[in-house]
Write a structure and sequence with these properties.
single chain; 214 residues; alpha/beta; Rossmann fold; 8-stranded mixed beta sheet; 3-stranded antiparallel beta sheet; 5 helices; 11 strands; globular
Length: 214
């Protein structure tokens, strides 16, 4: 485990270290969206890997590397992989400045990460993602959509809110997500909508998943 390119004193990045001290997510999660798109020899980057919920299944099919801005998250991901008799390289690194050389990966997963960045950071992150992708590589992005039940709060940019824990939440439209990926071929874009019951009332969860080729 190596610490590279920490993003400096930005509270919404640093907040994830505190968040991962008391929040865990169950796993593993499905990587079926990659079926038919990658060969077994593919090198895959999981940006914002958290505690390894996607990294574990990735590591069982591909040469995989996971990065996260939280050292606690990366430690948990390494432990999770070890307990499940699997392995992948894990690094502490920011999505806006990663330590990899140009054209290093056949695929990049960025699931539930881009929504926690400010507008200028999202642009930088996409530039970094493009830089490390090989020609023809696959990108999978999943973000919150504007119809999500959590939309709202202390708005600091358009459709972007800062929570009390300092974490940023941005809610995307399909048009915005597509415009962010100039230079990519869009393979699929879909809304993922589900209903959750809280205090006896239905609430909508809304995510957008986009699969693209560079």
């Amino acid at each position: 485990m190596e610490n590279n390119f920490f993003p400096g004193n930005k509270s919404h990045f640093l907040a994830w270290e505190e968040e991962y001290k008391h929040v865990t997510w169950g796993g593993p999660r499905s990587i079926s969206m990659l079926e038919g798109l990658l060969s077994p020899s593919s090198r895959v980057l999981d940006l914002g890997c958290g505690n390894g919920r996607f990294l574990l299944p990735l590591s069982r099919k591909y040469e995989s590397i996971g990065t996260d801005v939280s050292a606690t998250a990366v430690c948990r991901a390494c432990s999770y992989l070890s307990k499940n008799n699997s392995q992948a390289e894990c690094l502490v690194s920011s999505i806006t400045s990663n330590p990899f050389t140009n054209e290093s990966f056949d695929a990049v997963l960025c699931l539930g990460v881009m929504q926690h960045l400010l507008k200028d950071e999202r642009q930088i992150a996409i530039s970094e993602i493009k830089r490390v992708m090989k020609s023809g590589a696959i990108l999978v992005i999943e973000v919150f959509g504007t119809e999500d039940m959590r939309y709202g709060g202390d708005e600091i940019e358009t459709n972007t809110f800062r929570r009390k824990n300092e974490i940023i939440y941005h809610y995307f439209t399909r048009e915005e997500l597509e415009s962010l990926l100039v230079g990519f071929e869009i393979i699929e874009m879909k809304d993922i909508v589900s209903e959750k019951i809280f205090h006896g009332k239905p609430h909508r969860r809304h995510q957008i998943r986009l699969i693209a080729r560079l």
